[in-house]
Each structure stands twice: as C-alpha cells, then as structure tokens.
Amino acid sequence: MRSYWQQTGAVIRNEFHTVFTDKGVVLILVFALLIYATAYSLAYGSQVLRNVPIGVVDESRTPTSRALIDAFNAGPNTYVAYTPTSMEEARELFHARKIYGVVYIPADYERCLYGGQQANVAIYCDASYFLMYRQVFQEVVTSIGQTGAMVEFQRLVAKGANIPQAQATTQPVIYQSQNLFNPYLGYGTFVMPAIIMVIIQQTMLIGIGMIGGTWREFGLYHKLCPAGRRRMSTLPIVVGRALVYALIYAVTCALVLGLLYRLFHFPMNGNPWTVGIFMVAYVSSCIAMGIAVSTLFRYRENSLLLMLWTSIPVLMVSGVSFPREGIPEWLYNLGQLLPSSHGVDGFIRIQTMGASMSEVFPEIKWLIILTIVYGGLACIGIHQVIRRELRQRQEARIAEKNRTE
Amino acid sequence: MPGFFHNVCAVARRETRRLIHQPMYLVLMVILPVVSFSFFAILFGQGAIRNVPLAVLDQDNTSLSRKVVQMIDETPTAMISYGIQDMAEGERLMREGKVVAIVLIPPFFEKSILSNSQTHLENYVSGTNITVNGLLSKDIQTAVTTFSAGIQLQLLMKQGLTEAQAMAQLMPVRFDKHVLFNPHINYGYYLAPSFMPMMLMIFVVMVTIFSLGTELKNATSRDWIDTGGGSVWAALVGKLAPITAVMFLISLVMLIINFKVVGTPLNGSLAVILVGTLLFILSYQAISVLIVSLLANLRLSLSIGGGYSVLAFTFSGLTFPIMAMWEPMQWVSRIFPFTYYTDIFIDQMLRGTPWVYSLPDLGWMSLFIVLPLLCLGRLKRVATEEKFWGRL
User: B200 is in which domain, residue-wise?
Assistant: First the structure.
C-alpha cells in the first residue's frame, strides 16, 4: 500500500515539474482560462445594444408624424439618425451600414388619424443581424402601439366615454413581462457562464493532451511507473496527475469566478458551497476526460491541431448560444457525453438562477458518472501506452544486443 | 524572373510530396473541415426553435383564461408543459431547468373583461438565454395582443360599430412589417455561414503554421530554403500555394454546403464572395507566417495562432454587434480579417448589397496579406540558423 502512496507522490512531483517547466503547457493550462475569460468579458462588457441608428422616410411631414418620430427617438434602443427623402435614398444609407432599419410614414398619415380611419406605417427591418433586428423591431412596434393606443383613447374620450372605461376598451388586458435573472438581457450575462465552462474543459483537453503527446513523442510514460509493475499501478498515475491539474484549476477558477465575476458584474446568485461542490464535480470530469483523451495523441502539437476547432461545436451543443430546442435530438444527446454540456447547464442554474444542490442533482450525478467512466478509460489508456512503450524498449534492447553480438 | 518561377515550382513540388506523405495534412485540410461544416449544417438544419416548455399558473380557471392559455400554447415557440398551483412551484421548475417561463393569469380575469374593466396578465421569462427569451417573449406578447384585440373588437361591435370601423378604432396606426434579407428569421441562415468560415480559418491557420513549424521542429528548413534557390520569397510562395489551393477548394465545398444544404440565399454577387474567400484564406496564411517567423517555435505558434483565430468570432460583431462594444474593443475587432469577411458575406449572401460596398472590406483584408513582407528577413534567418531549430 505504501508504495502506491510513494508512487502517487512521485507522479505529483513529476507532473508539477512537467507543467511548470513547459511554457506551452503553462500558457494553456494556467493562463488561457484567465486570458480568454477576460478577453470575452471585455468584448461583451457593455452587455446591451442601445441606440441603433434607423432612418425614417416621412412623407407626411406633419406634427403628428413628427410625434411618431419623437417616439422612436425617445426609446433607449433606437434613434433616428437620418430622415431620407425617398426610399431609394434610405436603401443607399442602409447598404452603407449607416442605418439598420427604415420606417415609412405615408403622406396620408395625419389625415387618416384625424378622420377616424386606419393609418398605415411600413417597417423595414434587417434580420441579417439578430440583435439589431430585435432592438429595432421592438422599439418601433412599441412606439407605434403606444401612439395608436393614445389616439384610440382620445377618440373614445371625445365620444364621451369615461376614463376607466376608455382605458379598459383601449387595453382590456395589460401584458406585463418580466425578465428574470438577467433583467436587462445583457449579452455577457447570458453567454459568459457558458463560455467560461467550455474554456475550462477545452484548455484541459488541449493542455493535458499536449503533455500526453510530448510524453508519447519522447517515450516518457513508462517512467511514471515503478520498475516491477504491479496490478493497479496506473491508478496512482491518474490520481496523482489529476490532483495537480485540480490544484491549478482550483486557483484559476477561483480567480475567474471570484474576481472576474465581480469585476464585470456577472450574476452571483449561487450559494458558494453549492458552486464549489459543483465545480469540483465538473473539474474532475474534465480532468478525467482530458487524461483519457491525452493518451491518444502521438505528438506534442497534435492536441492543439486536433482539439482547438472543437471549442465552438462544444459550446453550441451545450444548448446555450443556440437553444437546445433547435438542435436535432440525437446531436444533443451525443453532446451529453461531454462534461461541458452538464457543466454549462448546471452552472448557469446555480450561479445565475440560484438553484440549490438538490435542484442540480441530475447534473452532478451525470458529472460523477462521466468522471468514473473517463477515469476508467484514462487508466486503460495509460496502461496501454506504458505497455507499448515497454515493449518497444524491450525490442530495441534486443535489437541492440543482436547488433553487438 | 524565370529562375524565380522555377524555384517556386520546385518548392511547390517538394511541398506537395510533404502534403501527401504526412497524414496530418489530410486530416487538417480535408477531413476535419468537412466534418465541421457538416456539423454546423446538421446543427442548424432544423432552423427554427419550437416548443420551448413553460408553466402556467391559472388563478382564474375560466373559459376566457383557458382560451388565452390555449392561444399561447398554439404559438410556434411556446409549449405549455406544466399547470402549476403557486409561484414557488414555478420557480422551482425554472431552477430545475424544466421551464423557461411562467405565465400568471390573475383571479377575476374573465369577470374583469366581461365587466369592461382592465385586467392584466403576467409573464416571467428567464433571461439566462436571451435568444430563447426574445423568441418566447415575442410570441407570448403576440398571443396576448391578439387575444386582447379580439375582446376589444367584440366590445366595440357591441357598441354598434361595423367590423371595419371597430378595427380602425382599436388599431388606429397599423403597421406592415417587412423583414428584410432573412424573411423567415431563420437563425441558421446567418449562423451557419458564419461558423463555417470560422472553422475554415482555424484550419488554415493550423495547417499553415504546422507546415512551416514542422520544418523548424524537424530541422528541415534549410533544405526548404535551398529548394527555393535560396530565395525566401520563392520558398514561401511555393510552400503556401499548394495549401492555398487545397483550402480554396475546401472553401468551395463549404459554400456548396451553405447554399445547397443549409439553403442560405445568395442575393448578391458570387464573384465577390469567391474573391473575398480567397483573400480571407490568404490573409490568415499571411498572419500565420508572421506568427511562425516571430516565435520560431511550432507549438507556441500554434497556441498563439489558435488563440488569435478563436477570438475572431466574438469580435466579428455577428452575435453581439461591434457598435455595442466599448470603444477600445471596437478597435480590437479591426485586427481580425474575419470581421471584414463576415461583412462581405452578410452583404453579398443575405442583403444583396451592390458589390462596390464590399470593396473597402476586400481592401482591408488585402492589407493583412502584406504583413509577411515585413517579416521575410526574420523568416529567412529563422529558417537558416540552426539555433532556431528543434525547439519544442
């Protein structure tokens, strides 16, 4: 038993040495998480899109139509940057990316309103950028709706209705919509938790893969195993290495979740203990997967070449940026094999929505299952690599011997 | 000049042999790009987002309240999955990730409506996913507005107005909505053509750095320069041209998947898209050359190049517009050719912008191709001096 402890100790010392003497590995395992998390947070730092420039073609040119233009200006999301005189001019402004939406007010606008008829307004909004589309459409429609309700209300009162009655007729059902957990619908608040979770997993896969690739390239794996191998001697290797990575990520995750989260005001509604326990489960499953996958790389650079591109598909399949209801079922289920899919989902619910341990129990359960499965695969992988290395050395030695004889 | 051309061909032949003999090239230039394009084609194949689960707390439970619930359920995005007894239950369901929104109908909902006094309806939507939030809020709002308009119509007609008069009364300002360029508001139409070039770019960077970096790692770079007759120019052109050619062919596969499988419209000029794609590939190759020349280390170059390319998506402004970013970040967004490329494809695929508007973007991308010129001296030194070789 003692020899297992000694072996684990040796593995830990060796791993620390390997990680911190290798600039490339330090860059990915230690700094990448901090750099990326900061860079993305800065990009999304302003959180919301405001003041999208739109154009209004006002053929009516009356106080009433100008009141409508003022309504577009009054809201936070749009401002009327140009009042082109024709749709042709508006199109040019649009192609030059000066405006992102056009409202056309016809010449008979005021006449219709005063005459008790229906006035028509045309809205052209650009759906090639989704956030722009949403802000423009929402603001314009709200302004038109409010203007219309005001007109209707005035007409009813003019006809002799009392004010509560007129209100009830104008708007029988008041619709109130509240956005929970992210009241201003900040983009960073929405996407950063998922990105951070995915970066943790991907840096782990690439970083550990780089160590694994280096060891295989130079045939160093067998050194982790004491001479005279015994059964289960790969377990201390996996555990020892995992502890080192866990320690590194304990520090970097604490920085990101403690410091960066506060700096950028991301929501921290989770109980710290729940967050901590969840992160332990998540990081362990990522490490287990990282070690398991790392035994597949034969060269130092392979993990980067082969794993980097997966970051975006991995983020997509977790069902955050692109909602899970839009992902084909089988692809989503396949994604459940990745710790990140459970990690992202659970983490958002804990940290953004304030879910308790029992409410994320299914995710924690899955993370533990994945840790065990990938941990087992890691043991098998390392076992295979060491066996192959020892056999090759054996063969080399025999060849050497034959040659000298 | 003929000598130069001869040298380029010699290096290109040498490079082609390398591409064939090292299976990693096949993986990086053909297999993984196609796999990743297919991934996005499948991911966005469904296009629309349907049946997002929500809970209803109906405190009225009358025919009118059930009517509005039914109208919400019938919208494309929403699906009523749970009828709940109190808000605490709804909040729990939300934290468990089982529902995204809770609709609350207050008591006396029907009674208020029938007695012509105002009532209200509340919707609590989770803001953790703003995409779902946007779609769901819009659909529920539309359902409630339609419901409410129906009631108004009945009220007004009871007062003796004709239907047309009543319509003019309840909606004095009507609007015609024209959704330009992406009329079905298909998410896939703009995400698929933006993620695929992102993948293409990652592989261009990886394969270019790999092909230059392995020369250094395996100490074959002097042989490479010698094949080019000692001219670093010839050596570089000969080395990159075969890769450019293959990656351009793969980008055609990408465009075919985009137009034929995903079904993205092509409203503008295909020629501009093709020229843009070629410049896009060349600009990222140029940046890769710069990185390898400066760092002279395969793995470190891959890390830096990879990091740089992955950041491009966020800063391209496709999902979060550049306009909304902080000023310094808007400047940062300029250092990625991808930003210009996305402008080109949005303009040329979706918007059908006249081609002259894409010229500035093409010009900016060309500027990135000039970069390696600045470091050719350094590249030659790195490639011929042994102290730069075999670094890990």
Answer: 2-45+186-388
Q: Are residues B321 and B253 in the same domain?
A: yes
ipTM for the predicted complex: 0.91
| Nearest-CB residue to A46 (from B39, B176, B325) | B325
Single residue among B144, B170, B196 that ends a domain in this structure? B170
- How far is the first Cα of chain B from the last one, in angstroms, to the nearest whole number? 37
Task: State both tokens at B356.
Answer: 């002259």
Calpha distance B214→B211 (Å, rounded): 6
Q: Dig out the tokens for A240 from the structure.
A: 């020892």
Identify whether B179 is part of a domain: no
- Looking at CA atoms only, how far is residue B372 from chain A in angstroms? 22
CB distance B228 to B7 below 8 Å: yes
Residue B61 lies in a domain: yes
Q: Which of A207, A188, A379 is nearest to A283 (CA)?
A: A207
Mean pLDDT, each 10-residue run in order, chain A (405 residues): 79 89 89 94 90 92 92 91 92 90 91 85 84 87 87 85 82 87 89 94 94 88 71 83 94 95 92 95 96 92 92 90 84 94 94 92 96 94 88 87 79
Inter-chain CB proximity B203 and A189 less than 8 Å: no
What's the pTM value of the predicted model, to 2 decimals? 0.92
> Both B351 and B297 in a single domain?
yes
- Chain B positions touching A126 (Cβ under 8 A) are 180-181, 351
Helix (H) and strand (E) counts for chain A? 17, 5
Sign of the torsion angle spanned by Cα atoms B240, B246, B249, B254: negative
Q: With contact defined as beta carbons under 8 Å apart, do B63 and B125 qualify?
A: no
Best residue of A28, A92, A130, A182 to probe chain B, by most B CBs closer than 10 Å = A130
For residue A58, give the 3-state DSSP assignment. Answer: strand
Within 8 A of B147 by CB-CB distance, chain A residues are 173
CB-based contacts of B349: which residues, under 8 Å, 6+ apart? B193, B258, B264, B265, B266, B267, B268, B273
Counting every residue, how long is chain B?
392
Cβ atoms of B156 and A168 closer than 8 Å: no
| φ, ψ at B249 (rounded to 5°) | -60, -40
